[in-house]
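Hey,
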Amino acid sequence: MDIGRKLDLSVYYYIKDVFSDAPFINVVDGFPETEFNLPTIAVELDNIDTYVLELGNHERGKIRTWFIDVFAKDKSQRDEYAYRLISRLEDNIPVYNYDEGFPPSSTPSLLGAISTDRINMQIVKVIPDLTDMLYYRAVVTFTGEYNSM
């Protein structure tokens, strides 16, 4: 499995762990494309920016941006989940070798960590006339760079 996919899975399982105390919250890998139950947290890679690490060398560093959509039943729930995400994203996100298996059936070995940098929260206004289901939404974005051990 490519290291990029291992990073995506590590972020997904990290966010899933952030809400492990609330099993009624759906945490999904990718933006929901069908109907979903509230509350739902959707984790998705947004973009990858590369930069040259050393002149004359083809090795490049990569800064990735993820966005986490929070779909909630009310404003209070939306804010609580978004604030929890912001708080937990201030820590490094461990990156695991998912070639060895997936939780909870296995505990893959640690490869390194994603150092998080810019963290942002934006409230998304949902217009009741344009949707069948009324919900409250926020998007938490963050950038991070992978550092191997």
